[in-house]
Amino acid sequence: MRESVAVVHDLVSRFSPLDELGAEHRASALAWLASTDNVFRRVKPASPPQHLVSYVVPVAADGRILLVDHVNAGLWLPPGGHVEVDEDPALTARREIQEELDLGDAGLSRSPIFLTITRTVGPDCHTDVSLWYVLACTGDEQLRPDTGEFHAVRWWTRDELAASDPGRFDPHFFRFLAALDQGGLVDELNRRTGLDRLSGGSDRFSPVAAQLSTPSGHISVRAGCGGGYEVMVRAYGGDPAAAGRTDDLVEIAGTMLDLHKGRSAEELVERHTYLAVTDPDAAIEALWHIITEHGEGDTVPLARAAAANPVLRRVWPWISHGTLQLYDRRDRPSLVKRGLAFHPAVDGFMVRPYGGEIHAAEPPETAVARAAEIVAFWED
């Protein structure tokens, strides 16, 4: 394998697919790279008919995304271009943002965070195998766009993107945003905080875009259901302490740094006004939201059925060892006296009150009703 192609093969092999389509694109790209060295565009506009592209997505500190209204494609796209023969795709990314927008590369991600395979539109249609890089920006940079390539250049908020016609963008752009929230955010926040200790993955409740654990507590960041990011701070021991929503990465990075310094939830709220201290009612509601809207697996339908029950909606929901647990609202998650667990079974769920007998497997709706009877007894 040609050395320059081997570099790209290594990049692609390290991708963690976002979804089933991402897994298909990764497998297809790896097979293509292993089968030929003819992966760079050699003759304009489309020879060979499948070739490499580097996209660069500028992301402002407040979460806005910069896109260009591309003359040839007739779409709002990230800046970027074709990888020259034997060129490292990262060098392509640096070259393109300088040529097309006169932007520097200080905030460029070390590696791409997303991969797509796309059939282009227009008279010279071909297939782009695109590597998507992220460029961290302030959002105040002076832009000098290439007027020969773009009708316009603009920053988009997440709300503006959500309200727009998806057909006006790259067909995989909104999947990229999900990848940015899940993976690229970790690199971005590590860069902004300088901690290099953040991770993605999942906490006990659901997948997270980024999280940080410290001796004084834990902070998790999730992509907001209506845009922006949902942030939850839990104290040492796991009790929810503060929560809020923001699309400002500077604020999120500052919150993480302050937690790392050992500041309390009250101090975090005072310094970062998007947060609010979570009293039991607010904390319970926040946890139900996370589990039902961000959770995954068989627990989610059960949690949604439980959340729809007014008796159960008033108690603490918790996930432990992959099972849904409910705690008396007068307890704290770190110190539980009264609780119950839903244990998965072939025919539904077995409800087990803490310190009591486990019930036979029941359909989810029956198990929820039984749990409500147990919780009502706690309140008596």
What do you see in this structure?
With 380 residues, the protein is α+β, with helices and mostly antiparallel strands. It has three domains: 3-190, Nucleoside Triphosphate Pyrophosphohydrolase; 195-281, no CATH class; 297-379. It is 33% helix and 25% strand. The chain contains ten helices and 16 strands. α1 packs antiparallel against α2, α5 (173-193) packs across α6 and α8 (280-294) packs across α9 (299-307). The model has no long low-confidence stretch (mean pLDDT 90).
Outline of the structure:
This protein is α+β, with helices and mostly antiparallel strands and 380 residues long. It contains ten helices and 16 strands. It is 33% helix and 25% strand.
Short descriptors:
single chain, 380 residues, alpha+beta, Nucleoside Triphosphate Pyrophosphohydrolase, 3 domains, five-stranded antiparallel sheet, four-stranded mixed sheet, 10 helices, 25% strand, elongated
How is the topology of this model organized?
Elements (H helix, E strand, L loop, with lengths): L2 H11 L6 H16 L14 E10 L5 E6 L5 E2 L2 E3 L6 H13 L12 E6 L7 E10 L13 E7 L1 H5 L10 H21 L16 E5 L2 E7 L5 E7 L4 E7 L2 H12 L4 H7 L3 E3 L2 H15 L4 H9 L8 E5 L2 E5 L11 E7 L2 E6 L10 H16 L1
Parallel strand pairs: 1-6
Antiparallel strand pairs: 1-4, 2-3, 2-7, 5-6, 8-9, 9-10, 10-11, 11-12, 13-14, 14-15, 15-16
Cofactor: Mg(2+)
Keywords: Hydrolase
Protein name: NUDIX domain-containing protein
